[in-house]
C-alpha cells in the first residue's frame, strides 16, 4: 500500500488491510486535522485500506 | 481493492446514513456521502446566518478572501446561499501582505476563484497601506511575523471594507479557529476580546464582522472543498509555525481527539460569558486615539506595532 503523507512524501507500507483510523494512528497523525482519500476518493476513518491501494492524507495548510 | 465494500463498524454497507451513496466522512456521529456532506455544511451555514441575523436585505458584504481553504469555502458557500432578490452584494477583498514565496500563489487562487464565480475582487497591499511589505516590516523579528501580520491584516481589511462602503465584513473563521481564539484570549487575559461580539458593529462606526463558517469544523471545510473540486494544495505560510496559535491548535486538536466535545464546550463557555457578563465602559472596544480603528485600549495594537517599528 502506498501512502502519500501531508508533506507529500511517499511511504510504502505492508499490504495487510487496516482501517484509516489505525493507519493514521500508526503514522502518528491526528484524524481531526486531516481528510483521507483512498484511490482518489474521500473515505471515512473506518474505511479499510490495504493491498495496492493508494492512500493520500491531506492536512490543512495554515496561515493566510 | 478500493472497489470493494470494506467497512468495519455497525454499518456493514459503508453507505451514507441518508442514502445509498458511499460515505466519505464520519461527521458528528453521522456517515455522510459527498452530496450530503455538502448539503449539511451549507444547511448549517444557512441556519446560522438566518438565526443570528447575519445578513439583511440591502447588505453590501466585503468578504475577506485570502485564497486559502476557509475563505475559499466561505465564498463558495455564500455565492450559493445568499438570498436572491434581496439586493445583497458580495465583494471579495484580498490583502497582499507581501510574503515572498507564499502570497503569490494564494493571490492567484483568489483571482481565479472570483473570476470563476463572477464576484468583484479588490486587492490591497501592506506596502500601500503601511509603507512596507510584511517581509520588510518583520525583518530581524520573524518569530513575531504571524502576530504582527494578523493585527495589521485586520486593520487592512477594515480599511478595505470602508473603502467599498461595506455594511458587513465577512471572514472565514471556522469552529476550530474560534475555539483557539477563546483559549488564546483567556491565556492573554484579554477579557474584552473574549466577550465582545464583533458582529454587533459596536462601537459605531465600525463595520460589523460576521463569521458564517463559525459552526463548521476545519475538517468539514476541507472535505467540502475537496468534494466540490476546489481543494488546492497551497503552501504553508512561512510565519505560521512559531506563533502561540500554532501551539494552541496542536493542543486543542489533541484534546478534541482524546476528549471529543472539547471544542464545542469552549465555544459554549464563551457564549455563556457573552450572555451573562457585561463589560464596564472602560473595558469595551473603542476608537484608537491615533488611527480611529477598533481598539481595546487607547491605542490599537496595529498602531502600537507600527510605532514600535518606527513606521
Which features would summarize this protein structure in a list?
heterodimer; A: 64 residues; mainly beta; five-stranded mixed beta sheet; two-stranded antiparallel sheet; globular; B: 311 residues; alpha/beta; Rossmann fold; five-stranded parallel beta sheet; disordered N terminus
What would you say this structure looks like, in words?
The complex is a heterodimer of chains A (64) and B (311). Chain A has one helix and seven strands; from the N terminus they run βββαββββ. In chain A, a hairpin with a 2-residue loop joins strand 4 (34-38) and strand 5. In chain A, the strands form two sheets. In chain A, strands 2-1-7-4-5 form a five-stranded mixed beta sheet, with no helix packed on it. In chain A, strands 3-6 form a two-stranded antiparallel ribbon. The model of chain A has no long low-confidence stretch (mean pLDDT 91). In chain A, 12% of the residues lie in helices and 36% in strands. Chain A has 64 residues and is mostly beta strands. Chain A has one helix at 20-27, and strands at 2-4, 10-12, 18-19, 34-38, 41-42, 48-49, 54-59. The radius of gyration of chain A is 11 Å and the shape is globular. Chain B is an alpha/beta fold and 311 residues long. Chain B has a single domain, classed as 3-Layer(aba) Sandwich (Rossmann fold). Helices cover 46% and strands 11% of the residues of chain B. Chain B has helices at 34-51, 69-81, 103-117, 126-130, 134-137, 145-163, 175-188, 191-195, 218-228, 244-258, 262-276, 301-308, and strands at 25-27, 30-32, 60-64, 89-96, 120-125, 168-170, 209-210, 286-287, 294-295. Chain B has a five-stranded parallel beta sheet, with helices on both faces. In chain B, helix 2 (69-81) crosses helix 9 (218-228). Chain B starts with 24 loop residues before the first strand and ends with a helix. The model of chain B is unreliable at 1-5 (pLDDT under 50). The interface between A and B is large, with 31 and 45 residues.
Amino acid at each position: 500500500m502506498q501512502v502519500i503523507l501531508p508533506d507529500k512524501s511517499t511511504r510504502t507500507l505492508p499490504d495487510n488491510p487496516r482501517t484509516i483510523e489505525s493507519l493514521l494512528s500508526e503514522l502518528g497523525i491526528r484524524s481531526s486535522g486531516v481528510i483521507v482519500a483512498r484511490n482518489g476518493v474521500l473515505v471515512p476513518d473506518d474505511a479499510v485500506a490495504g493491498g495496492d491501494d493508494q492512500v493520500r492524507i491531506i492536512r490543512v495548510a495554515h496561515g493566510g | 481493492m478500493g472497489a470493494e465494500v470494506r467497512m468495519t463498524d455497525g454499518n456493514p454497507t459503508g453507505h451514507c446514513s441518508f442514502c445509498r451513496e458511499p460515505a466519505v466522512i464520519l461527521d458528528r456521529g453521522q456517515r455522510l456521502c459527498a452530496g450530503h456532506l455538502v448539503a449539511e455544511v451549507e444547511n448549517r451555514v444557512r441556519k446560522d446566518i438566518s438565526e443570528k441575523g447575519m445578513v439583511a436585505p440591502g447588505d453590501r458584504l466585503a468578504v475577506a478572501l485570502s485564497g486559502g481553504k476557509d475563505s475559499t469555502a466561505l465564498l463558495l458557500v455564500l455565492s450559493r446561499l445568499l438570498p436572491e432578490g434581496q439586493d445583497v452584494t458580495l465583494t471579495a477583498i484580498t490583502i497582499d501582505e507581501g510574503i515572498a514565496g507564499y502570497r503569490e500563489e494564494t493571490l492567484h487562487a483568489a483571482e481565479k476563484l472570483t473570476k470563476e464565480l463572477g464576484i468583484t475582487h479588490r486587492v490591497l497591499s501592506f506596502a500601500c497601506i503601511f509603507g512596507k511589505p510584511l517581509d520588510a516590516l518583520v525583518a530581524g523579528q520573524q518569530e513575531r511575523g504571524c502576530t504582527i501580520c494578523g493585527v495589521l491584516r485586520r486593520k487592512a481589511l477594515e480599511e478595505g471594507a470602508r473603502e467599498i462602503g461595506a455594511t458587513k465584513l465577512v471572514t472565514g473563521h471556522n469552529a476550530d479557529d474560534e475555539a483557539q481564539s477563546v483559549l488564546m484570549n483567556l491565556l492573554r487575559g484579554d477579557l474584552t476580546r473574549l466577550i465582545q461580539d464583533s458582529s454587533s458593529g459596536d462601537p459605531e462606526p465600525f463595520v460589523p464582522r460576521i463569521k458564517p463558517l463559525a459552526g463548521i469544523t476545519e475538517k468539514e471545510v476541507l472535505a467540502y472543498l475537496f468534494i466540490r473540486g476546489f481543494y488546492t494544495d497551497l503552501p504553508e505560510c512561512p510565519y505560521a509555525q512559531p506563533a502561540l496559535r500554532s501551539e494552541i491548535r496542536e493542543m486543542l486538536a489533541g484534546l478534541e481527539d482524546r476528549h471529543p466535545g472539547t471544542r464545542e464546550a469552549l465555544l459554549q463557555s464563551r457564549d455563556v460569558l457573552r450572555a451573562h457578563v457585561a463589560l464596564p465602559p472602560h473595558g469595551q472596544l473603542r476608537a484608537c486615539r491615533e488611527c480611529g480603528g477598533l481598539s481595546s485600549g487607547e491605542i490599537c495594537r496595529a498602531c502600537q506595532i507600527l510605532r514600535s517599528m518606527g513606521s
